[in-house]
Amino acid sequence: MPELPEVEVTRRGVAPHLEDRIVEDVILRRDGLRWPFPPDLPALLKGRRILSTGRRGKYLLINFEHGVLIVHLGMSGHLRVLSEGIELKKHDHFDLVVSGGPEGRRVLRLHDPRRFGAVLWHAHDDGELEQHILLRGLGVEPLIDGFDGALLYRETRKRNAPIKQVLLSGDIVVGVGNIYACESLFRAGISPKTAASRISRARYDKLAGAIRDILAAAIVQGGSTLRDFIAVNGQSGYFQQTYFVYDRAGVPCRNCGTPIRQIKQGQRSTFYCAVCQR
Ligand SMILES: [Zn+2]
User: Fold this and answer.
1) Strand ranges (DSSP E) for 5-163?
2) What is residue 238's predicted lDDT score, i.e. its pLDDT?
């Protein structure tokens, strides 16, 4: 599943092909994905200029003067920028055709086999984007200055659930999905089973640093795949990293040699080292 780093790498990959371009066409090949496509999207966007791109959590934001196109990649989606006339593949559900750049007309194409993705429109007339129903419950962005150990400590004083599940809930900090929760808890030396309310401020400082470092490293690593976003038939730009605990059940810990353990927490697999993480 695309996580925050993949979405940010996607944003950086498609941004140079979208920003300051004019929308020529919007092609909806089905009624919707996870939610219906706005049926008036072509009328809303044709002839309009894309001002910029952004990201909030795992939502890609394409900003126009009158609103924001919100794109989510769901479980299996990816975006590519293509020349016009490239043959459709199964599961290519949405195209945004743009012009105005040195390369001529380009197609931003959403491919989503499992159809948990989304393409939605937020009109500025409807209020603040941050109050959009999908965005308003989101925690802070982990890569901005406001995210630190003090914030994690403050927001967890009444949270008695295990820290792993609190991270996954996304209401304190976004973008720490299953892989990055496991990896950052390992990096910080914190057991995923520890109640969030019982972790000290000093340990949260380490955890916040680990989250930032791991996400930032993933984005840098993903940057090397940027060319894939404009490949004609290339695979998506998602990338495998070197993990310390994730998906390594029974394999010796890279730090101490103890076999990595796998447990279930809230339906999700957690991987950790019982020696390195307390
Ligand atoms: Zn270990």
Assistant:
1) 22-28, 50-56, 59-64, 67-72, 78-83, 92-99, 106-111, 118-123
2) 46
3 as an active site residue: the answer is yes
Do 4-131 and 149-272 fold alike per CATH?
no
Ligand 1 centre to CA of 258 (Å) is 6
CATH architecture for segment(s) 149-272? Orthogonal Bundle (1.10)
Query: Which regions of 76-192 does DSSP assign to beta strands (E)?
Result: 78-83, 92-99, 106-111, 118-123
CATH code at 4-131: 3.20.190.10
Tokens of 132: 């959009």
> What's the pTM?
0.88
Does 268 participate in catalysis according to the annotation? yes
Candidates 11, 21, 56, 58; catalytic one: 58
Each domain of the chain, given as residue ranges in start order, spans 4-131, 149-272
DSSP string for 194-220: SBGGGS-HHHHHHHHHHHHHHHHHHHH
> Would you call 239 exposed, middle or buried from its count of C-beta atoms within 10 A (0-12, 13-18, 19+)?
middle
Helix (H/G/I), strand (E/B), else coil: 261: strand
Between the CA of 255 and the centroid of ligand 1 the distance, in Å, is 5
Mean pLDDT, 10 residues at a time, the chain of 278 residues: 87 93 97 95 98 96 98 90 90 96 93 94 95 94 94 97 97 93 97 98 98 91 57 44 91 98 96 98
d(Cα 149, Cα 273) in Å, to the nearest integer? 22
Give the up-direction half-sphere exposure of residue 197: CA atoms within 13 A in the CB hemisphere.
5
